[in-house]
Each structure stands twice: as C-alpha cells, then as structure tokens.
Amino acid sequence: MRRTSQEIADEVLCRIRLLEKEDARRAARNKKRVYSVIAVAACLVLIVGLSFAIPSIVMDSTAVEVEGMYTAAMLADAAAGSYILIGVIGFAAGSAVTIFCLKGLHQKATEEQPHDRND
Asked: Per the domain annotation, does 32 fall within a domain?
C-alpha cells in the first residue's frame, strides 16, 4: 500500500514534534541535575565554612582558657554549642539533599514507565 505525500508529511511532522518533546525533557533533566549539584556544593561549602568560622567566633567572644581543658571538659565549654550547631545544620542540609535526590529518583522512575498500559 502506497502512502500519499500528505500522509508522509503528517508522519514527518508528528516525528518532529516527538523529537522536540524529547529534547525538551532531556534539557529539563539536565537543568535539574545542575541544580542538584549546585545544592550539594552549597551545602558542603556552608558546613565546611561554618565548621571553621563558628568555633573561632565563639572562642573570641568568650574568655575561656582552652589549654587546661581535657576531652570531657570541652563539652562544658561555650564552644561546644558551636559544634552542636554545626552538627544540626549539617544534619538538616544532608536531610534536605537526600529528600531532593529521592524525589528526583521517584520522578525519573515515573517518567520512564510506559504511559499506555493497554498494549
């Protein structure tokens, strides 16, 4: 059976639209990956920066002698609060990144499933 030129042109246009949709999906996925990498990098920079900055700020603001302290006595120091703060911020940032990654994986899995299950 031969196709008419109009049928061939319609098929070509349909294929072009399908390819354009796929390109748009691929671009959106790449954009999401870039945002994810930036979010992870920002969290790491935040945690590392705070871990260096907060203890020195707290130690400068409190006149505490560090030389005579032992390991267990460090928890009684005012700087221990800064380490706890760093831990809480690190946990929150890690939890947020994990949630975003799991959400992205779930969304990717639902996109890859076939849309028409009647085949």
From this structure: yes
Residue 118 within a domain: no
Locate 16 and state its tokens. 């072009």
Q: Which helix (H) or strand (E) holds 51?
A: helix 5-61
Task: Give the closest residue to 76 by CA, choosing from 15, 68, 43.
Answer: 68
Q: Confirm whether 119 is domain-assigned.
A: no
Can you give the pTM of this predicted structure? 0.49
Containing 91, the helix (H) or strand (E) segment is helix 79-112
> What is the domain range of residue 33?
5-112
Long-range (24+ apart) CB contacts under 8 A made by 74-79 are 79/55
Residue 67's H or E segment, with its range, is: none
Most confident of 35-49, 52-66, 105-119: 35-49
Orientation of helix 79-112 relative to helix 5-61, angle to 10° = 170
Total number of domains constituting the chain:
1
